[in-house]
Amino acid sequence: MMKRLIAVVTALVTAASLVACGSDEDAGGGGGDTLRVGTLSDSKPNAYQENGEFTGFDNELLKAIAEKQGLKLEFVATDFSALLGQVANGTFDIGSSAISQTDERKKTVAFSDPYNYQSLGIAAPDGSPVTDENTLGGNRIGVVQGTVSDTWLADNEPTAQAVRFPNDAAALSALKTKAIDGAVFDLATAEVYVAENPDAKLKVVHSITTDLPHGYAFKQGNTELIDKVNAGLKQVIEDGTWEKLHKQFEPNAPTPPEFASKS
């Protein structure tokens, strides 16, 4: 009799434990439905953190897409140099940080439909020998490792002394202290850094427009999520949300016709 009683009690305790574990999982992430988004904390105006919230054009656009499609998002900061690998290995469900869709990157991750295009800006402090794209050679030029800026510099001015940084903040700090002669950023980012750091006397000495589209990054094979994001992207373009956010975060950049409101 005692053995039967112990067995019943043990079974009840085990069942209660399983229920409790299930409740914790549901409370922690909606049963696993929350999508982890890898992004940057310091790359204005595309992806950055302000007052504890992740914002910027790319992140606000993704939030609007998620709302249209009923998706839950959790943003997590990382360095760009690690981001695509973290998306590829499943650490993040989505990568959001003005990621250009290069052929090389497509070998590692899948992309959404385009939602913007890549433009680069060369920034330099007052008195720098870097005055345009033809004066990069022989000078110390900062880039964020693994970005299009990094590959553009290597392809277009291999005699420049590339100084690679893990993130924008480190590159900007070196530029402000003149530890480097110039830096290549996303154009909109370079313009923000010039405007927000008047004491450093920075200026954009050259801009480069490319036809490389930006896209959100996904683990290869995750077609269901990619399809949902693409459907939501179409919705936010059609209802004018894309244009509204673009004017908010990149007021000096023209709107490509394919992203103009259809309403």
Model description:
The chain is an alpha/beta fold. It has two domains: 34-115 and 215-253, D-Maltodextrin-Binding Protein, domain 2, CATH 3.40.190; 118-211, 3-Layer(aba) Sandwich (D-Maltodextrin-Binding Protein, domain 2). The chain has helices at 2-29, 57-69, 80-88, 103-106, 148-156, 168-176, 187-196, 223-238, 241-249, and strands spanning 34-39, 42-43, 47-50, 53-55, 72-77, 94-96, 110-111, 116-125, 140-144, 161-165, 182-186, 202-214, 217-218. A hairpin with a 3-residue loop joins strand 2 (42-43) and strand 3. It is globular.
Given as residue ranges, the uncertain stretches (5+ residues, pLDDT < 50) are: 1-31
The radius of gyration over CA amounts to: 23 Å
CATH fold assignment of the largest domain = D-Maltodextrin-Binding Protein, domain 2
Structural class: alpha/beta
Termini distance? 76 Å
Largest sheet: 5 strands, mixed
Report the average pLDDT across residues: 89
Strand content: 25-35%
CATH architecture of the largest domain: 3-Layer(aba) Sandwich
Helix count, DSSP H or I runs of 4 or more residues: 9
Query: What is the number of domains?
Result: 2
- Total strand count, please? 13
Q: Helices and strands, in N-to-C order?
A: HEEEEHEHEHEEEHEHEHEEHH
CATH C-level of the largest domain:
Alpha Beta
